[in-house]
Amino acid sequence: MILLEAAKLHKTYGNKFNKQEVLKGLDLKIFKGEFVSTMGASGSGKTTLLNVLSSIDRVSNGSIKIEGKDITGMKEKQLAEFRKQHLGFLFQDYNLLDTLTVKENILLPLSVSKTPRKEANQRFEQIASELGILELKDKYPNEISGGQKQRTSAARAFIHDPSIIFADEPTGALDSKSASDLLNKLSDLNQKRQATILMVTHDPVAASYCGRVIFIKDGLIYTELNKGDQSRQEFFKDIMKTQSVLGGVHHER
């Protein structure tokens, strides 16, 4: 089943005297239960793509459908409601509220949707256990490590069972052990919950945890790789080969 379908996406910045076209008519389909990553060199458009697909930014032209609903035509209030119910977000810098405990941060999406307390607590216990952070529930963000912060952020993204989770460089600020811990957890949640995840990354190791990697070049899809029955190590080698053809992948705005 197609969960997200984007057609002829264009995104232009600037004015008529100084235009920069970042997305140039890109088409994309993501299926329910997929764990997909997008990669590309600096300026390729991969971060812009994530921003427009996740409704953080608006497209200049084209359509984006999530579960059959076209989000490009939605008014701001309608879009905010849709975002609240259907989308989960995982950012490189965690975006946790320092004045709330780990548990309170994770419960935020359920507080906003006025989920009954008993159900909210059950959901919290389950997702916090799956991510190995249940014992941290009464701690504040400044009392836990970067890896634990990102797992808290992941729990917040998953707790309301969104249609799709958008992850923007989720391992970018983590050491290699914390990064692999997080990616293993995301991979488990993807399989156990049939959660759909779209991740932007510059890191081929992170991308190798996905089932499909889409390479963006000059605002269009250049090529894609499917993991199939390969081991993660074999898939990593394929990703590295494609990345070298693209001329390297660096951080992008």
Automatic annotation (TrEMBL):
Domain named ABC transporter: residues: 4-243
Q: Which UniProt keywords apply?
A: ATP-binding, Nucleotide-binding, Transport
Give GO cellular component annotations, separated by semicolons: membrane protein complex
Recorded GO terms, molecular function? ATP binding; ATP hydrolysis activity; transmembrane transporter activity
Do the record's keywords include Protein transport? no
PROSITE patterns in the cross-refs = ABC_TRANSPORTER_2
Keyword Transferase belongs to the record: no
Family membership, please give it.
Belongs to the ABC transporter superfamily.
The protein, known as: ABC transporter ATP-binding protein
Q: Which organism is it from?
A: Mesobacillus selenatarsenatis
